[in-house]
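In the current project phase, our protein records have gained a structure token line. A sample record follows, to show the layout:
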Amino acid sequence: MSAPARVRSGGALAGTTPVPGDKSIAHRALLLSALANGVSTVRGFPGGADVRATLGAIRALGAPADWQGDVVRIDGRGLALGDGVDTAIDCGNSGTTMRLATGLVAAIAGRRTLDGDGSLRRRPMERVAVPLRAMGARIETTGGRAPVVVDGARLRGTDWTMGVASAQVKSALLLAALRADGPTTVTEPLATRDHSERMLRHMGVAVTTDGTRIGVRGGQPLAPLDVTLPGDPSSAAFLAVAALLVPGSEIRIGGVGTNPLRTGLFAILARMGASITVGGERDVAGEPVGEIVARHGTLHGTEIGPDEVPGAIDELPILAVAAAFAEGETRVTGAAELRVKESDRIASLEQLRTLGVDFEPTPDGFVVRGRPDARLAGGTIAAHGDHRIAMAFAVAGLRSPDGVTIDDPACADVSFPGFFPLLARLGARVDGPA
């Protein structure tokens, strides 16, 4: 655990900045590049702990990968990746690494044990094991959790309807489908982020879509990838909300991914009256990219239902902070998935109450009754090793004269290396070694 850092109220925030490359796309770029025929180049690599776990996974499976600065070059091994290699894969704290890699190795001859830290060992893994078993995979979990042991088997295509909306499970099935016999179709209850489908198409794989039904036929080769990753919209969300909450602030965030299945939070904030604009959009390897400009303004409460949750699931902690300074009530339902993230994020957000926020947890979400003129009490917050909780409470500290102390600020490096120093460069008062 790192030394604490305190964030407290001060002057306006201003500046233009990029954010780290999109973590979700980085995971997929590494895994699919390892399956490609030839050398792929991934620029804008964010370098956080989660994506480093995926980098280690493809190396363990026999795909050489050279990482210099923010560029990774991967020597793909085609659909023969990892054939006959028995290995252990350390997924660290990354559920994305574990779930996607389980799909990746399900059809490869050999035995792999996928494990991670204590937090990851508490997260559910049967949700990916069950549909993969329906394809013929041989997978053992430990009481439904990690460690996960996969013995490579010949897979057959399947038609699977998901009970829970999960881009990780969908992507695991699509990765497995690449080496399965025949076609595989996956039907989602709600549309989730579609980075896997977009990247597969960009690499020459035929992917069919019909509403929330996605199909891939096995045996298709992948062309090498040459891509600059968009900035992560989940990371941009914390800076945008910081600007919204501090009077006189304006922050411009360039090169951010604006995929509509990832920018649900920005749509919600706009509905709450936020001054957020997106401009200069262009296409980068099948993904839309643009500049986000956020300015201070008055917010009002809103309701977020289950249909909006998949597009904003990672940003709901910072939404709770924004809601604390909105006029009236904000209610989130259908977000039980927050209970099984890096921490129980609903329980972690209850710490807002110690700062004076009217926060009410519910089984599948929360209710916040906000006040635009609120000034938060000071206090020390336990991040529980959760990067998004650490960053959310840091932003809350911008409205606290006495300051909010984060017990483990370095955990933000999982997705946003350098978050606290950047916040300080934009004008925030940040005390401590972070």
Remarks:
- The chain has twelve helices and 25 strands.
- The first strand starts at residue 5 and ends at 8.
- Residues 23-35 form the longest helix (13 residues).
